[in-house]
Amino acid sequence: MEEKENKFRTQVAIVGGGPVGMFLALLLDRYGVSSVIFNAESHVSAYPRGSSHNPRTMEHYRRLGISAEIRKLGLPPDHPKDVAYFTRLSGWEIARYKMPSEIELARLAAGTQATDQMPEPFQRANQMYVENFLFKHLSRRPNIELRFGWQAEQFSQNTDAVSLTSTRLVDNRREQWRARYLVGCDGSRSVVRRSLGIRYSGYDRLEQAYLGGRMISSYLRAPTLYHDYLGRRRAWMYWVVNPELRGTLFALNGKDEFTFWTKPRDAEAPPDEAAIRYALFRCIGTEAPIEFIGHQPWTAGAALVAEHFGGGRILLAGDAAHLFTPTGGFGMNTGIDDVANLSWKLAAILQGWGGKSLLASYEAERKPIAVRNTRAARAIAKQVGVLDIPAGVEDDSSAGAMQRQELGAQVSTYLGAQFAPIGVDLGARYDGSPVIASEGPAPTDSIVQYIPTGEPGGRAPHYWLGAGRGIGDSLYDRLGKGFTLLRLGPKPAGGGDLAEAANRTGAPFDILDVPDSAMRDLYGADLVLIRPDQHIAWRGENSADNASAILARVTGV
After folding, report:
1. Distance between CA atoms of residues 177 and 183, nearest Å
2. pTM over 0.90
3. Helix, strand, coil percentages in the chain from 3-state DSSP, rounded to 5
């Protein structure tokens, strides 16, 4: 029995093959760490879910060299990513938040300043397309094993390793696995979290007229919608608001496939396709050819965070650690940022240059971000879900026009926070972390505003180092896989002592000289130490007197 248990080994076992689990495996592979993904479903999801990949997530994709490919997914390159509000799809347009198409983004990028903070702007590609791409990509990576169609269970751990049993569901074949660490990326009903006895805390729903409580997401084909109604008013998301009903339609492929949200009258009953069809016709304003592919219920308004992000050698990430309402698009993106934080710390410990406190810093850094982001999403949901819709907003009259103008103004007050919450997306900070050598008070937090700062704890401010605006021109393209010391300004200080300290510990370390005075002013110091996840670990004018102490702190020794 002992021989069988020891047959299958890996450094990191990942339970859950959604985007967060797959991305964790890809990051670990980049650091040279082996992993295996267990996923009960035999394939990635073919049902639409979220479509928002925020600028920070796109920066993480860029690190793996896949951001350009992900930008080809979903909507056609000339399709605008706008958010538009209508009385009905065949009726009046009352508000629009403009977001450029991929073609427009490429044109705008050429004129950006060197200090532009979005080298990878928002991408709207449905998660089912991205998951399929990630699955194919990781299938070719040398350090990743796939167990899709296998259920992982019976987790146990000791001071050295984690053991688990996996069962192939098609034939009940069983395998015993042993890993140094295990990460549960298995969603809101996480068996890994429950095996640790960890509960969520927070709000499980939000009761309001729309985007509260039970909702239905319907996947459909509507081959005539663009030709008849949307061709000249294309958008990524269409909101319908009128005195009769509310609904939301998402463009998936820019041709004929959509997701449609409705709030059912009976929260306990299964999805009623006839009622959903009728609601869609009322949102359009007339009947149209419709083919439904499927319906999935979900709960709006959740703002839940796990009491702990793991125990011992078992960690949690993504929905297993926090559950969101979808407003703001924070859910998957927060999970991607989780594993960007966790992956390098696991690699550091497994490769011998990370200290004992490094893994504990994962919860210390990421749980406050989860609380912050779930609260931000819930606050946006409250704004979006409660609208004062005038009775005459559809009237073809001067009074109706005035009501549409007033409703459009009401909607416009939150469009930036909901669809471009750049402060949340880029402003995550790890102030107070035991592995951050911070100097001063944390900058002011904001949902809609991001102010780049060299204060340790935050994302390293972006800077275009090359003359172009393509791959290789960004600061992020020139950072190493481990720690990178920026030596800034025309006369940078030494920093060789930090490199020597890193060499003694085995920590991967690169030095990048940037003589540009503007970048030195942006960061506020001659020397800036960037972590593998692109957050600032330390900054200063000279490290000669305390290089070993700095490295010891930021590596958790």
Report:
1. 14
2. yes
3. 30, 25, 45
Joined together, the tokens standing for residue 508 give 């991967």
Q: What is the DSSP track for 40-53?
A: SSSS---S----EE
| Chain segment 331-353, per-residue pLDDT in tens | 999 999 999 999 999 999 999 99
CA distance 106 to 149: 40
Q: Which residues contact 270 (CB under 8 A, 6 or more apart)?
A: 297
Structure tokens at 6: 């020891």
Q: Which residues contact 66 (CB under 8 A, 6 or more apart)?
A: 133, 137
The dihedral through the CA atoms of 145, 148, 154, 155 has a sign that is: positive
Q: How many CA atoms lie within 13 A of 242 on its CB side?
A: 21
Two structure tokens written together for 511: 């030095």
265: three-class secondary structure by DSSP: coil
Residue found under tokens 């100097």: 439
* pLDDT tens column, 7-44: 799 999 999 999 999 999 999 999 999 999 999 999 99
Question: Any idea which architecture 74-124+213-300+388-420 has in CATH?
Answer: 2-Layer Sandwich (3.30)
CATH 3.50.50.60 is right for the domain spanning 2-50+126-203+303-377: yes
Location of structure tokens 């009352």? 94
CA distances from 397 to 93, 240, 280, 403, 404 (A): 15, 20, 26, 10, 10
Contacts (Cβ under 8 Å, ≥6 apart) of 338: 20, 317, 318, 321, 366
Check whether domain 429-554 has CATH 3.40.50.300, yes or no = no
Q: Are 13 and 162 in contact (CB under 8 A)?
A: yes
The residues with which 284 forms a beta bridge, in sequence order, are none
Write out the H or E segment, with its range, that includes residue 199.
Answer: none
Side-chain half-sphere of 476: how many Cα atoms within 13 Å?
A: 27
Distance of alpha carbon 58 from alpha carbon 430, whole angstroms: 20
**Which residue do the tokens 């996840």 mark?**
533
CA-to-CA distance for 394 and 162, rounded, in angstroms?
A: 61
Closest CA to 390 of 367, 366, 373, 406: 406
**Consecutive H or E run containing 418:** helix 398-419
Alpha-carbon span 400 to 535, nearest angstrom:
51
